[in-house]
Amino acid sequence: MTDLKSYARSLERSRTALTREDRPDRFTMAGREWDLLPGVFAPPFSATTATAMEILGLDGARETPYRQHGSFLEIGAGTGIIAIAAALAGCARVVASDINPVAVENTRLNAVRHGVTDRLSAVHSDLFSALGEDERFDTVYWHSNFVLAPTEYRYESDHERAYVDPGYRAHRGYLVEAPLRLTEGGSALLQFSDRGDVERLHEIAADCGRDLVVRHRQGFREAGETIEHILFEIRRADRPAPSARPTVR
Predict the structure, then answer these.
(1) How far apart are CA 110 and CA 33, in angstroms?
(2) Residue 120 class from Cβ within 10 Å (0-12 exposed, 13-18 middle, 19+ buried)?
(3) 41, 74, 82, 129: which has the fewest Cβ within 10 Å?
(4) How many distinct structural domains can be found in the chain?
(5) Mind listing the pLDDT tens digit of every residue in the chain (249 residues)?
(6) What is the CATH number of the domain that holds 29?
(7) 32 lies in which domain range?
């Protein structure tokens, strides 16, 4: 395993991000101010959130890969930047989901700050577990915890969930269910990275009866390293996907 893909390194980054002396309780990104609560992934310490804004066209620099005025579900919302930006960009209904209850509260605070509570709701959920069985969306999006950790690893905090995925259990759950949560013609999107195991992701997708189609690639520099993020669209393969939902996390 290269140092770039090391789960131990990612966990150390998680622990450091919680205790840095310069960790703010408020920060600016995309020309707006955001609240940051303790225990929530800190966008100022990583270029990934700003890159996600660019990839999704939420900065206005490229065409959006989602229905701009439709419904939008974000898994792993964190501070809520992506979900709130989607609401501000015109999405009529936005649901921001996170397994970390503090992140859910953080998203709610920022939704109030930016005046989108009329069309955005934040829910505490392990992937899709808290959603109604019949809820469907024009776009389902997850900027995933793409670093692969050993299957037996057990999280020491909810904060670590934003950094690594043991055995890619959460990825398997998302690959299976995200396409099932779409309206007709909708898109299930997964933002991944070359810091993750791309080959393993494709193997899991095939096992789940899913195809991964690259919608966009974008490289950026972080801490002196070049990293590439990949936006995949998840599509059902010709053969049927498993009918039983997997247990995740």
Answers:
(1) 9
(2) buried
(3) 129
(4) 1
(5) 457 689 999 999 999 999 999 999 999 999 999 999 999 999 999 999 999 999 999 877 667 766 778 999 999 999 999 999 999 999 999 999 999 999 999 999 999 999 999 999 999 999 999 999 999 999 999 999 999 999 999 999 999 999 999 999 999 999 999 999 999 999 999 999 999 999 999 999 999 999 999 999 999 887 788 899 999 999 998 644 444 333 333
(6) 3.40.50.150
(7) 3-236
